[in-house]
Amino acid sequence: MLHLFRLTTLALTVALLGNTAVLAAPADDANADSSAPLPLDELRTFAEVMDRIKSAYVEPVSDKTLLENAIKGMLSNLDPHSAYLEPDDFRDLQESTSGEFGGLGIEIGTEDGFIKVVSPIDDTPASAAGIQPGDLIIKIDGHPTKDMSMMQAVDLMRGKSGSKIELTIVRDGGKPFDVSLTRAVIKVKSVKSQFLEDGYGYIRISQFQVNTGEEVGKALDKMRKDYGKRLRGIVLDLRNNPGGVLQAAVEVSDHFLKKGLIVYTEGRIANSELRFNADPADASDGAPLVVLINGGSASASEIVAGALQDHKRGVVMGTDSFGKGSVQTVLPLNNDRALKLTTALYFTPNGRSIQAQGIVPDIEVTRAKVTREQDSVGIKEADLQGHLGNGNGGADRPSKDKTAKPSRPQDDDYQLSQALNLLKGLNITRGD
Predict the structure, then answer these.
(1) Would you tell me which of 246, 249, 251, 383 could form a disulfide with 14, CB atoms 3.0–4.6 Å apart?
(2) Residue ranges of region Disordered (predicted)?
């Protein structure tokens, strides 16, 4: 699935995705201005237009089709994230909470009338094919996407697992090129963790699902137990993370904070004004922290990065994030349909709105390809016959044969290697 949504079974749940922040709420909350008089002249015009279409259009059109198209048009001109969800779309929204869905694994938005990739999701056909954040999809199986809605694009890109699809991509203003992909059932593992080096942990969150906060807590516990003492540092990787469930973003932030505000939202309806605060527990045990972000880090990812940055809990490194800071309310309608309506903005603890600006990293580190030169085989003093011993009694350190070392994530990832180097530097200056 390409355009992701999240919805929990709770009566009131907020979810924030790269292009969709969802607040599930009762439909009654939407009646903010029901006392306003009806615009009779405009309604008469609407009825007249509808009547003219029915009588004069080249082919017969049903009242149902005309009215549903009118609803879609009403919402599409508000902002890129408000939408009318037909039964299939509403069902997809609800089912995707589990993190298992069918499609390509791309989070999309719109730009200049075209479909734009916010981020590919880890371990999906899109990431395997090399789709990158910022790519413009100008054709889907030969169909031009100019002025196509995100829902229409999603419908075209969905399909049976194993079926083929061809996307025409423009990258960085270059020439268009085609990418062939095979649709698959996407099972997203939202959290991966490992040690980069002795005492330096790495946690990668690909998107925020319902259980992500719990999984991060388990990963931190396991790393602390495996290392046996306070971790020397942690890299929290939120690059190309399109977002997800707000509550999960709050829980992840809370694992690194002992007090204070994490995020708050402001809007016109009562249920849109929420505040989330940290509890005193710190699952990370105060370990030095670097948070990696980039242009594919959106919504819930920006909440985490913004909260940790405002509290000066860690160093945010990478490039500017996406800038998705609005909340959508899912209002169920009859006949298994729903409205997804933008109702609020969210703010970091210091009152920053991320909308259309994003999070600016404390240290900018752009993507770069790492190439390593082979060390020349040399002779050291300790290799020479009859060399003097170390005056302090230290052991000799002769040259050694260069043996192949196992591949590590930081070996080919410049941003990650810089994050690890920063953590090492912090430990040296702190005397750890």
Answers:
(1) 246
(2) 374-415
